[in-house]
## 1
Amino acid sequence: MDKAKGLAALRILLGAGFLYAGLEKVFDFAGSGKAFTAAGFLKFGTNGSLPGSDPKAIVNPTHDLWVSIAGNPGLINVINSLVVIGEVAIGVALILGIATRFAGVMGALMMGFITLAAWSFAFGPVNETMLYAAVALYLAYAQAGLAYGFDAIIEKTEIVTHRPALHYLLG
């Protein structure tokens, strides 16, 4: 069994998910006619949920933080840009296998923030954003960019061989 092919497929699949999410925000594939903003999610999607909790109850201990951020136009503009740029960049990096460790860690960080903000545990202690974060971290740990990715080529260049710290971004 060729584990490299499976690792590359997992990397490309997660990358495609990130890329699609970012491009959907830019091009509005759903045709809503509205520009993307995280403000709605931060205001109305951060109540949280726990098994057996009232759907209208606020169970997320960080809810007030997210609502206050949504009320700050300057900060919400920065967040909107970071979300879109982050999703597109992480997606492209994972698909191509470029700076895979960095992209995996940043993808896990983004999913961690979404997990914390949504606080959605109505169906148990593990949710989909936690799983995305775990897969992204695994791809970083497993050096998935070396499996049919450009990192395998980049790591052999003179620039990287003379600067070993760059190996922490690649792989």
## 2
Amino acid sequence: MLAAWAAFAQQYNGPRPEKPDMLYLVHADNLIPTEMLEARQEKMTFIVPGASSPARTPLAEPIFLIESDKINPQSLELYRMEVKGGRREVTISQKHTRGSKVLRLTVTPLDGKLYKVEADQELENGQYAISPNGSNTVFCFEVY
């Protein structure tokens, strides 16, 4: 099995991210950078400015690439954001009784520090953010 993974990893010859630790949406042979922001935290709500992200995809199950330097791709979490008052926000609850739940992602090593990150379920149209667990850094995008 390790030999099969190594052979697969050596065969990747698609587009490569320009910058490390930046998530890029994959559209055929094009990479579109996500909107990287620092979310402001108010209690358990994380807020970013603007009603929508300039990084947009029509794909209900988007695929991303990341060249990992400092970010552990296995720590990435996907959240749907709500638009309120011209800003995007997500409320996270430790008890999962209220607030947003983490949506599923699949992370696949491709080549060295290059990883493919995929939404593991169909996403409805709307605003989303991917963030490393324990960080206020968010990579925002819109599904339309």
